[in-house]
Write a structure and sequence with these properties.
The structure holds 2 protein chains of 2 kinds.
Chain A lengths: L1 H36 L3 H4 L16 H9 L2 H32 L5 H13 L6 H10 L6 H5 L6 H12 L4 H8 L4 H12 L1 H17 L2 H6 L8 H12 L3 H21 L1 H11 L4
Helix pairs in contact in A: 1-14, 3-14, 4-8, 4-11, 5-8, 8-11, 9-10, 11-15, 13-14
Chain B lengths: L6 H35 L2 E3 L6 E3 L3 H8 L1 H32 L6 H9 L6 H12 L5 H5 L13 H25 L4 H9 L4 H29 L3 H6 L13 H11 L3 H29 L4
Antiparallel strand pairs in B: 1-2
The chains are: A mainly alpha, B mainly alpha.
């Protein structure tokens, strides 16, 4: 039996070696981003000698100067507002529609749900030009409302919540209806609180999608003071592309809020993505 | 055949319609009207100063389909997908199998592999561009090479594909792990008693039983890869000589519709893309019946 144990041990070591090599590869871009961000530009573009670590001090103040000179406060504010309203709208509309599709019977149900499913199959690029024209006609270019606009309703979220509501036991509602609760009360007091995990999944998914989206904010918010972190970063690259520490410091600032939120709530993140499996 | 609704059923129907109304109205205004409007615009030309649509029939389609740029971009997009999807899926599957083994420290590894998923492509693509920098970049300086990672037309598409793989591994892995957890443990126990080793178990139990998950991931990732935009936009400068060989079809769409303001031509490109994706989806659905193992 000893040979089996040695084989298991060797297998374990091989697995750890592969996992560790992969982890290092995954982390290199992040480490290099931070190491470059705290160098001087001279050090960053020095080739002979090539510096991996900063050799004359770690210039953490680079972050502060990038924060000030590129108006990061506004970018953070815009991104936060966009995410907040998109999550609010998505959860609100999808919870209501998900409950109706998952628990109630009504004429037209199948046809309406077909609309939801069809929307999920259409690539979203086909919506962009008319959505832009609508935002432009309503005078919402360069506003937070313009950023939120395509995310007011969500077919994917409706589908996700419908599945959540379908999974709840039937007798819960029957008891409430005997107690004289109407449908609205049953929804608010009994059913909605039970789908908290689906709502969390949808919120995380919506927030991540909004945070990462580049094309929409670039189109509707062309001014630096109205745009999001994603699009604002893209703009900076065009203007200051060869000042590498500045670029890397701004990249760190652009990803750090979501990284921190992820590290704190990683269980919810991973489960949210695993259960929703949406297209990010 | 339709019978009249009882008062209770009527009440339920009213509540239900109130609940779905915001979503349905939203879908019609934000998604269905735009779909038809884009198709309509693809038959139009944008007038001077961006005003009005002038009907031009199939003129846009003739130009788009005759333009080698369209086919080149479509081919670039397919090449990108051919790197991102197979490698992204295969590497993620191996990592998921390892992380599912209940070893110590797996949650730390999972956290690291998933990290790129929470980062804006606008920021990380920038870092990769810096890593790939021919003169000052980390890669060339560490390996003492002089590779033009992103400006050599022959290899730039591979370099971009690598960024894509790096970005999606964590996402695919998380979906694989949840798929693996649904495979009943007794299959493996029975196989162990019969003397099947790890690798045999992987090919004879894991792969077939995981095939619904794998299919789902391949399908979502394939559509995601065929609509890739951010990576090309962030990594490739407008002056990059390899841009022609890497720009994706959505990148082309963005350029025509929003940089050049030619909405009609942009709409046509998008319709061509959507038709292409529909064909791919249809083929995948046909393949699903053959390739996916159903219990």
């Amino acid at each position: 039996m000893e040979s089996v144990q040695t084989r298991d041990k060797v297998n374990k070591i091989i697995i750890y070696v592969i996992l560790t090599i992969m982890a290092i590869i995954m982390l290199v871009p992040f480490v290099w981003m931070i190491l470059t961000a705290v160098k001087t530009n001279q050090e960053a573009i020095s080739v002979d000698p090539f510096y991996i670590f900063p050799h004359n001090g770690w210039h953490w103040e680079n972050f502060a100067s990038v924060w000030r000179s590129y108006n990061f406060f506004t970018l953070y504010k815009n991104t936060l507002l966009m995410i907040f309203f998109r999550v609010l709208c998505a959860v609100l509309t999808a919870t209501m529609a998900g409950y109706a599709f998952g628990r109630l019977n009504f004429p037209g149900k199948n046809a309406m749900f077909a609309l939801v499913l069809i929307q999920m199959m259409i690539p979203s690029q086909i919506f962009i030009i008319p959505q832009y024209l609508m935002v432009s006609k309503m005078g919402l270019l360069n506003t937070v409302s313009g950023l939120v606009f395509p995310g007011i309703v969500t077919a994917f979220g409706t589908y996700l919540l419908k599945t959540g509501y379908e999974g709840l036991p039937k007798d819960l509602e029957e008891a409430a209806s005997i107690d004289g609760c109407n449908i609205g009360q049953r929804f608010l007091k009994i059913m909605m609180p039970l789908t908290r995990s689906s709502m969390v999944s949808l919120s995380i998914f919506t927030a991540l999608f909004a945070f990462k989206d580049l094309m929409w904010p670039m189109i509707v918010c062309t001014r630096a003071e109205t745009t999001t972190l994603s699009a604002g970063r893209a703009k900076m690259q065009g203007q200051y592309g060869s000042d590498y520490p500045t670029m890397m410091a701004s990249a760190v600032l652009a990803i750090i809020p979501m990284v921190i939120i992820y590290v704190i709530f990683q269980k919810q993140f991973v489960e949210g993505i695993a259960t929703s499996g949406g297209k990010l | 055949m339709k019978k009249k609704l009882t008062p209770a059923e009527k009440n339920e129907a009213i509540w239900a319609w109130c609940f779905i109304l915001p979503t349905i109205l939203g879908l019609i205004i934000l998604n269905f009207y735009p779909t038809f409007n884009t198709i309509y615009q693809s038959f139009c030309k944008t007038g001077d100063f961006g005003k009005g649509n002038i009907w031009v029939g199939l003129a846009n389609y003739k130009v788009v389909l005759a333009n080698s740029e369209t086919w080149h971009s479509l081919w670039n997009t397919i090449k990108y997908a051919l790197i991102e999807v197979p490698f992204g899926v295969a590497i993620a599957l191996v990592l998921a199998v390892f992380l599912n083994k209940k070893l110590k420290g797996t949650s730390l590894y999972r956290t690291i592999f998933f990290l790129p998923m929470v980062c804006a492509p606008a920021a990380v693509a920038m870092v990769w561009k810096w890593l790939y920098n021919q003169q000052f970049g980390l890669l060339n300086n560490i390996f003492h090479s002089n590779v033009a990672w992103i400006s050599n037309p022959k290899i730039a598409w591979i370099s971009i594909g690598i960024i894509g793989v790096w970005s999606v591994i964590g996402y695919n892995m998380v979906l694989f792990i949840s798929g693996l957890q649904e495979i009943p443990g007794d299959y493996y126990e029975a196989a162990s008693i019969d003397g099947a080793t790890g690798i045999k178990q992987f090919f004879h139990i894991t792969i077939p039983l995981l095939s619904p998950t794998t299919f789902f991931i391949v399908q979502t990732r394939l559509i995601g890869a065929l609509t890739v935009f951010d990576l090309m936009f962030m990594v490739m400068d407008k002056t990059n000589v390899a841009l022609q060989n890497t720009q994706s079809i959505v990148y082309l769409f963005y350029n025509y519709a929003f940089t050049n303001g030619n909405k009609g031509y942009g709409a046509t490109i998008v319709v061509v893309l959507v038709v292409f994706i529909m064909i791919v989806t249809f083929i995948l659905q046909k393949l699903e019946k053959k390739l996916v193992f159903h219990n």
